[in-house]
TrEMBL record:
GO terms for biological process: methylation. Belongs to the MT-A70-like family. SUPFAM superfamilies: S-adenosyl-L-methionine-dependent methyltransferases (SSF53335). Residues 58-91 are annotated as: Disordered. This is Putative transcriptional activator adenine-specific dna methyltransferase. It comes from the Eukaryota. GO terms for molecular function: methyltransferase activity; nucleic acid binding. Pfam families: MT-A70. The keyword Transferase applies. Transmembrane segments: none annotated. Keywords: Methyltransferase, Transferase. InterPro entries: DNA_methylase_N6_adenine_CS, MT-A70-like, SAM-dependent_MTases_sf.
Amino acid sequence: MAILCSCESGWFVSHDKLVESWFGDCDFPEVAQPSAMKLKDALFDIRTPFQMDSAAQKQAAMRSASDGSMPSKAAQRRRRRQPRKDDVPLTDFVQPGSWIERAACEIVSAAVARGHLDATPATQQELAGNNAAAREAAASLASCVLRDSEAPVCVGGPMTRRATLVRTFLVPAGARAQLGDIRQLAAFLTGSYDFILVDPPWENKSAKRKRSYATLSRDELLLALPLSRLACPEGCLVAVWCTFNAAHLDFVVRRLLPSWGLPYLTTWYWVKVTKHGEAVRPFHCPHKKPVELLVFGGSAAEALPRDKVLVSVPSSVHSHKPPLSELIKPFVKTSAKCLELFARYLVPGWTSIGNEVLKLQHLALYEPVSS
C-alpha cells in the first residue's frame, strides 16, 4: 500500500495507488494493450457504510426528510441508547474497540487535513446509491469463472523485470506465483524467507452457508503450513491476517505461532473507511466490525512498533486486503525474501502461493491509466 500520511497512531494508506505504481510499465508484446494499468477506480468508490439496500434507502429518506446532513432527533435518540460493549478488549492480545476507534479517528483527521479524504457527510444521492458502482465493479470478477485448466500453474520469477500479461492475468515485475492447494503442496514447499504473510481462509458460518469459498478449520490450518521449512534460520518475521474473532485470535497467538516456534510480537489493526472517512461498519456492531487484525510473530530486523493502526478505503472485492510490502520494509533486512501463503494476488518481488493466487490479477479488475 502507498503510505499517504502517518501520525503517532499509524498510517493512512492507499491500496489502489500502490498497485498502480506496479503496472506503470507493462510489457504486452502479443496484444494491443496500454503500457500502464491500474485497478478500476470504481472498486474503491466506497462512499457510504456497508448495509443492505433497504437500510440505505431508509437512511436516504431520513436525510431527505431532515432537509440536511444531520439525522433526525429520533434517530439520534435511538443511536444514544445503543449499548457500547467495545471498551473491553477482544482478548488479552489486542486493544479494545474504543481505543482502535480513537486511533482511527486521529488518522482520518490527518488524511482529511492532507486532502486524501472528504470530510463532508455523504449526500442523499450517495446514501441511496449504496456503493452501487463499487459493487458492480466487484461483480465483474464473478462473471469471469476461472477453471483450473485455464490458469497457469506457475508464473513469473525474479528475472521478469517488467509487468507482463500471462493469458488474462497481470503479473507484476519479479513476482512469482504457485497455483495450488497448500495442503497438497506443503510437502514440496521449501525456502528461506525473511518475511512470511499468511492470509488464511478462516472458517465461518456465513462462508459455510453460502459456500462462497473454501475454508479451513483451525486444526487444518495448523497442520497445513510447514513454516519451519520456509522460515530463514537467522530469523523470520511472520504476519497472520485474522478476522475480529476472539477464537481465531487466541488460536493464532496461543497455538499457531508456538507450533512454529515463534514468539508473539504484537497486533496491528486495519480499519476500513469510506471516502468520507466514516467506518464502513459501526465499531459497536456486535456482529461485523470495520476492523481486521494483523498478528505478528518471530523476529524483526528493527523493533516492531506495538498496536499500530492502518486506515484505508477498502476494495469492494471480498477479502481484497491491501498489500503490506511498503509497511514492512523498515522491519526486514534489505532485499528480504518475502512469501505469502493463501495469496489472492501478486506482489512485485514476492513469492505467492494458494489456490486463488491469480484471482485478483484478472484483467477484469483493471483498466488503462488515462494519459
